Amino acid sequence: MALRHLGKKGIETSFKRGLVLPRVPASTERHISSTFSKSTSESVAFSFARYINGFGFSSPNHESFPTLTSISRCFHASRETLARRKEDPDRQLSHRELKKQTVKTKGKFSKREKKTDKPPVEAPYVPPRLQRLAKGLAEKTVDVFEGMTLLEFSKRTGESLAVLQSILLNVGETVGSEFDAISIDVAELLAMEIGINVKRQHTTEGSQILPRPPVVTVMGHVDHGKTSLLDALRNTSVAAKEAGGITQHVGAFVVGMPDSGTSITFLDTPGHAAFSEMRARGAAVTDIVVLVVAADDGVMPQTLEAIAHARSANVPIVVAINKCDKPGANPERVKNQLAAEGIELEDIGGNVQVVEVSAMKSTGLDKLEEALLLEAVDMDLKARVEGPAQAYVVEARLDKGRGPLATIIVKAGTLVSGHHVVIGSQWGRLRAIRDMAGKQTDRATPAMPVEIEGLKGLPMAGDDVIVVESEERAKMLSEGRKRKYERDRLLKAEEARVAEAEKKEAESEEGFIRVELPIIVKSDVQGTAQAVADALRTLNSPQVFVNIVHSGVGAVSHSDLERAQACGACIVAFNVKGGGSGNLSAAQASVKVFHHRVIYHLLEDIGKLIVEKAPGVSELEVAGEAEVLSIFKVLGKRRSEEDGVSIAGCKVMDGRVCRSGMMRLLRSGEVLFEGSCASLKREKQDVEQVGKGNECGLVMGEWNDFRVGDVIQCMEAVIRKPKFVSSESGAVRIEC
Ligand code: GDP
């Protein structure tokens, strides 16, 4: 078995500056503007101060900006006062003078006084150079690590030392020289400011690297027994409580092997969407995928989907052929099907282990665990145990009494109670760490799933957990990341809007209309909300665009109703309590709320709504068919043949022939003419339509060359709506 490296993708920051501007206090704006008013008009200076707002790293308490007293003094200073102040040796340096000073030292730092008790900022913040806003830079990702020197950071990012130093001053950090080490958090802060993505690398040098348990995800087709297998493994019965048989709740648990003292961590995932979503967010948590295939059903569409997910994630598979207790079980057939899909099973000389199990009878589970441990040994899974923890969120939920809770899996290091953490864009101090049995513990080591308490907000599944040294640093990083996420979100929304507008334009040129179905998703846990949103997006079709305008955790609130009303959205409430006054408010707000606990019922309801909303496409349909039995010529006034009109004496063989329809003449299956109907008569009477089995006389536009045996089709325009299609396997789609 080849060793596979699972890349620990760090924080992918695609920081595009100048889009959403973080605010500095208005007073600080005034201060900056007054500094600039020396050389330029006040209005220009003011607008520049506003512009700077986009680049200043505004810590929440704005410590890095001058005090209010100095601000007001500077703001009211006249040009003369400012000119006099230029001679004053104790005055603050302007940003230009500061820059000159650093340039003079040819990239070296000017000799600054050692750290004093004064506030860290003595000069106005110098924004990074504007030409660095290029898109290419924002997409650049650099590795950062604890203790890297400023010079190393400058080399990797391509940013000048002078600019880096000025940002450092602004965030309250002082460095004596470019050879001084900066912390990994400071490196991320710097990167955020200059618009570069970072990947956090933790050195393992000097620390103990020990084998760690594998983290396993169970995947497979619906109803093949994933939940039952997980239940059997942990010997509890979540499946019995579950509605609809699809796993709705993301969790994790550890199965211990008493003999060897080893253990396996199982993730309980709500489906393939969550697996790929977590990976997309950089959380490569899963080491091994258990592919569950029912012995009586074989390889099904979602089995193939699971294989594709595991392959794209480069994660090894262990196959569990389940339901082997059933009379119709045929494990050999399953093996052949898997082999046909390119899965190199051990039975046929490959390296993918196969185990026959029965989740219901709890047989073969020990063999499955053995196979997983063997795979883990093959993979040589190891992690650093000491030092700051790196972890990923697998689930997050709001608890009424305890606030935001997150289930996380530690990837490396040790998470200790009381530490300050940043999770995605949220932060907090670890008030409590609980193991999967709910028992409080003071630390969590690699591959250990724990629930943490003490966060200020709800993180998302797949968010990275990093430990920082202080509350202040946690707040700073969280603020910076929030701004970055908001910029990314706006950028994405703008890209989507432009793409949608272009699409609409192209469609309207083709006479095709696409409408939007805005949806708000509410769910009990974050992971499920994401999974539901992903499932709804699969119903996107060329005619109806499913737009998830918001997704969140908890019951449907008034603000959800207001939001839905504002954008004409419907609300999907999945696995959340509803009813009572909420229903009444929804009715008053005339907002459609869909309460569901089973994903397929939800998709069915939304599918119907999509079909209802779809404008449909206009198509020509054969309404009837007539056969030409005889031909009559009616001579014109000059009684010449060319001047006359041919009348086809026909019998309607199928459907109906209408006067208003388009006519199509076929001879030996070939279309010879298409045109409107000039006259339709039945026994000399003009009629609008003639039904099946009746005879009629028909004149077609310019066509005079009828022959006995020709077929005339009557075409009518119909509006064809899309169809909601659900297969037996549970897969659903909108067919246009
Ligand atoms: P999931 O959708 O893949 O999570 O499937 P479930 O675990 O919900 O199982 C679907 C159905 O298969 C349930 O009715 C289970 O009782 C049944 N089932 C699961 N495992 C076995 C098994 O080993 N043997 C038999 N006979 N039935 C099973």
From TrEMBL:
Protein name: Translation initiation factor IF-2, mitochondrial
Keyword Nucleotide-binding: yes
Chain intervals with Basic residues compositional bias: 101-113
One Gene Ontology cellular component annotation held by this UniProt entry: mitochondrion
Region listing for Disordered, in residue ranges: 83-125
Taxonomic source organism: Brassica napus (Rape)
Subcellular location: Mitochondrion
Keyword list, A-Z: GTP-binding, Initiation factor, Mitochondrion, Nucleotide-binding, Protein biosynthesis, Transit peptide
InterPro entries named in the record: EF-G-like_DII, IF2_II, P-loop_NTPase, Small_GTP-bd, T_Tr_GTP-bd_dom, TF_IF2_bacterial-like, TIF_IF2, TIF_IF2_dom3
Bias kind Basic and acidic residues: ranges: 83-100
Boundaries of every Tr-type G domain copy: 211-382
Major localisation: mitochondrion
The protein's role, per its UniProt record: One of the essential components for the initiation of protein synthesis. Protects formylmethionyl-tRNA from spontaneous hydrolysis and promotes its binding to the 30S ribosomal subunits. Also involved in the hydrolysis of GTP during the formation of the 70S ribosomal complex.
Family indicated by similarity: Belongs to the TRAFAC class translation factor GTPase superfamily. Classic translation factor GTPase family. IF-2 subfamily.
Gene Ontology MF: a single term: GTPase activity
